[in-house]
Amino acid sequence: LAALPDKALSRLLPYLKPELLPRGRMLCEVDEMLAQVYFIERGLVSMVAVFQDRITAEMATVGREGLVGIGRVLGGEYALARYVVPVPTIALVVDACEFRSALRESPELRATCNAYAQAFLGEALQTAACNSVHLVEERCARWLLMSHDRSDGDPLAVTQGYLADMLGVCRSTVTLAAGALQKAGLIRYRRGAISVLDRRGLEAASCECYHIIRRQYGRLLPSSGEQSPARRLSLVREPLLPR
To answer: What is the pTM of this model?
Structure first.
């Protein structure tokens, strides 16, 4: 939304409604019809694969650089995965039919959404490769860095159990990985919240996938990491998101 010219943005404004998405909420199950599209303003949403044995693993993450409902951009109607909210999140929600109409009428919106779709696909493919070859500690650092970026640097209200689900490993494995990062002074885990203490150190502990994904978004959506509070829509009010 921040990348859109005022005229294109005004086409969507009457239909965007702010909503607080609590931690743990499932926005859509795999193969369900996408009835709404969510533009994330603060926080993040995880796109999760669910296997027959109930093991889950994160495929990609959506933050303020994108939207939940990528299938609608690509012409589909059904969710490609389960979408869940790992931390308290604010989103601007629009009915899928209104979004589809806006896509047809606005070349600028269509071009921006297509650019996001490319970046999102790149992240999903990079994440798949990352999960195959990199150590859990490196993957944990990468996940924390990307979530830290998308949460404006606030502490992440996420449990180690949930982090284990996102990384597709058992909780004891994440406990060891997060413990190593905490012992190194890079993060602090306390009372169900993870704070990043040393960004540079955490980037050094991460695999190269973090920087690869960041570069992809920076190239395709230059404004995704620079959305200023003044540019964020006046529909959003901070009291929506409890501290």
So the answer is: 0.84
Q: Are 121 and 60 in contact (CB under 8 A)?
A: no
Return the CA Rg of the chain. 17
Q: What span, in angstroms and rounded, lies between the C-alpha atoms of 146 and 126?
A: 13
Per-residue model confidence (pLDDT) at position 144: 92
Segments in the chain forming alpha helices (H): 6-12, 70-73, 96-105, 107-133, 136-150, 160-167, 171-183, 199-205, 209-220
DSSP 33: B
Residue found by looking up tokens 């696909």 in the block: 121
Percent of the chain scoring above 90 in pLDDT: 45
User: Is residue 81 within 8 Å of residue 69, measured between CB atoms?
Assistant: no
Query: Residue written as tokens 């909503």?
Result: 19
Tokens matching residue 160: 């180690």
Residues 117, 55: contact at Cβ < 8 Å?
Answer: no
- Asked whether 47 and 38 are in contact (CB, 8 A), the reply is no
Q: Per residue in 191-213, pLDDT tens?
A: 778 899 999 999 999 999 999 99
Judged against a pLDDT cut of 90, whether residue 223 lies above it is answered with no
Report the alpha-carbon distance of residue 161 to residue 41 in Å, rounded: 25
Of 176 and 49, the structure prediction assigns the larger pLDDT to 176
